[in-house]
Design brief:
heterodimer, A: 150 residues, alpha+beta, Sufe protein. Chain: A, four-stranded mixed beta sheet, globular, B: 421 residues, Aspartate Aminotransferase, domain 1, Aspartate Aminotransferase, domain 2, 17 strands
Chain lengths: 150, 421
């Protein structure tokens, strides 16, 4: 009966929710930022290790719903090794696919990030999917305060 | 001259035969389907749906009687004024206030609390004074007092709760002291369902001469209220949680207190005489009702009260308690489900968490089944912090809910657990 929800809750999402990747602390992180979604109380702490403008390592801790946990987990996988500029561009693309402004984006080029495109049909959940990404943007900008989705 | 809205068929008044099917037929929205499933609306603590009588009342006011109140000599203004003041009288009767002038129309409970904070509070609370609230307050009974504290130098004291979600009454008595200027307490917790012993709270506070404000947003729609028997000094509730329109609510205050309080907002209707040198304020309750009020909404709130009184608040409470008992029992048999809020005296709110499934995911999945619940912190973040959860799932019941809807909820939860297994 809940089959129709599979566009949002795909197996990849369940997998990353059950076993989040890079769910750890980076002791020698160069950036650390707290992300908070006041609507639902989701909190993540994002750790970044930048070297020469490249994301050498990235990890997160915290608690949230399946969508925000899976999104954070997938994000840490796809942005490792990217330059700051590449990560910034990927954030912009991700924001577009989660809000449905993606006529020019080929979902198949996005790999596992594309599984979160389903969130666009659930406007109340878009912020869950973008919390980690907003935190990443803020960390790259070196904003030392808590980032909020509001 | 007296004016009344058109008479409509009323719900059955026989308390021994509460016909929920007939009640449901009065609420047009309950016929809606959501994602192809019948709507199961269990978010009544957030807001309730409106019976046809209330919807029709708003329409009738605008189509036949509407004009501004307390102003014109023309017929429509008189009709609107009569209906508006008639609604005030209905509110008075509903909570058994002694006088209609003790009933102030506001936008809702939030505005009522802000009004008391900014008028009574500013006039009577100063540096070094204390305001006593509880750990289970809605943000609307926390933030207005924090703002007042910032303005005056007063401090906020908080009565703790225990793991069941009951107030620590010994701590309450300890926290009452010579510096306490006001106690403001929720009657029924929106996050936990706890019904607080406000009779005792009011009695203990009054022994020290301390006035008590009661946040009745959750209690007024679900149990009989008698402000004279309670002897509370202020009581606030919202129309939209009481099967009435949003944008209208009520502040009850004892006449002597309201009289002594400075006005809240300045403007039309709250004055008796204005010159550029001096303004003389209007009598109660108009002193607190600056500007054109929510006229049709207030009148329709009166209609909602008529509707409830026809059924009887005791009957409503009994029906909802039966649903809560049934829901709680079924919930206990679901592995991994933890009920948050297990007070002895509870209203019909079932707040819970599921192992391994975040409340927001539960909310989205249940919505696919047509079931509307609330997932989140319920504007009570300190309560969530106390229980160490970021959020809960909350099912809250109203007079139109059924045991079959409880079954739908519990079956839905089982499905959610299976999807996440």
């Amino acid at each position: 009966m809940l089959d129709q929800i599979r566009d949002l809750y795909q197996e990849v999402v369940f997998d990353h929710n059950r076993n989040p990747r890079n769910f750890r602390v980076i002791d020698d992180a160069t950036r650390k930022i707290d992300g908070f979604n006041p609507l639902c109380g989701d909190r993540i702490t994002l750790y970044l290790k930048l070297r020469d403008g490249v994301i050498e390592d990235v990890s997160f801790q915290g608690q949230g719903c399946a969508i925000s946990t899976a999104s954070a987990s997938i994000m840490t996988e796809v942005v490792r090794g990217l330059t700051e500029q590449q990560a910034h561009e990927l954030f912009a693309t991700f924001h577009r696919i989660t809000t449905g402004q993606d006529d020019d984006v080929k979902l198949e080029d996005l790999g596992k990030l594309a599984v979160l495109a389903g969130v666009r049909a659930y406007p109340a959940r878009v912020k869950c999917a973008t919390l980690a990404w907003h935190s990443l943007e803020a960390a790259l900008a070196d904003e030392a305060t808590t980032v909020s989705t509001e | 001259m007296s004016i009344a809205l058109a008479q409509r068929p009323r719900p059955v008044a026989d308390p021994h035969h509460f016909d929920v099917a007939r009640i449901r037929a009065d609420f047009p929205i309950l016929a809606e389907t959501i994602h192809g499933k019948p709507l199961v609306y269990l978010d009544n603590a957030a807001t309730t749906h409106k019976p046809r009588a209330v919807i029709d009342a708003i329409s009738e006011v605008y189509q036949r009687h509407y004009s501004n109140v307390h102003r014109g000599v023309h017929t429509l203004s008189q009709r609107s004024t009569d209906l508006f003041e008639g609604a005030r009288e209905k509110v008075r009767g509903f909570i058994n206030a002694a006088k209609a002038r003790e009933i102030v129309f506001v936008r809702g409970t939030t505005e009522a609390i802000n009004l008391v904070a900014q008028t009574y509070g500013r006039a009577n609370i100063g540096a070094g004074d204390e305001i006593l609230i509880t750990a289970m307050e809605h943000h609307s009974n926390i933030v207005p007092w924090q703002m007042l504290c910032a303005q005056t130098g007063a401090t906020l004291q908080v009565v703790p709760i225990d793991r069941r979600g009951e107030l620590d009454m010994e701590a309450f008595e300890r926290l009452l002291n010579d510096r306490t200027r006001l106690v403001s307490v929720v009657h029924m917790s929106n996050a936990l369902g706890t019904v607080n012993p406000i009779e005792t709270i009011i009695d203990r506070a009054h022994r020290r001469g301390i006035p008590v404000m009661v946040d009745g947003a959750q209690s007024a729609p679900h149990m009989p209220i008698d402000v004279q028997a309670l002897d509370c000094d202020f009581f606030a509730f919202s129309g939209h949680k009481l099967y009435g329109p949003s944008g209208i609510g009520v502040l009850y205050g004892k006449e002597a207190l309201l009289k002594a309080m400075p006005p809240y907002q300045g403007g039309g209707d709250m004055i008796r005489q204005v010159t550029f040198d001096k303004t003389e304020y209007n009598e109660l309750p108009y002193k607190f009702e600056a500007g054109t009020p929510a006229i049709a909404d207030a009148i329709a709130l009166g209609t909602a009260i008529d509707y409830l009184q026809e059924i009887g608040m005791t009957t409503v409470a009994e029906h909802e308690h039966r649903l809560l008992s049934y829901a709680t029992e079924r919930a206990m048999h679901i592995p991994g489900l933890t009920v948050i809020g297990t007070a002895h005296d509870k209203g019909a709110i079932l707040s819970f968490t599921l192992e391994r499934v975040h409340p927001h995911d539960v909310g989205t999945l249940l919505d696919q089944l047509g079931i509307a619940i609330r997932a989140g912190h319920h504007c009570a973040m300190p309560v969530m912090d106390f229980f160490g959860v970021p959020a809960t799932v909350r099912a809250s019941f109203a007079l139109y809910n059924t045991a079959q809807e409880v079954d739908a909820l519990m079956d839905g939860i089982q499905q959610v657990i299976e999807v996440f297994a």
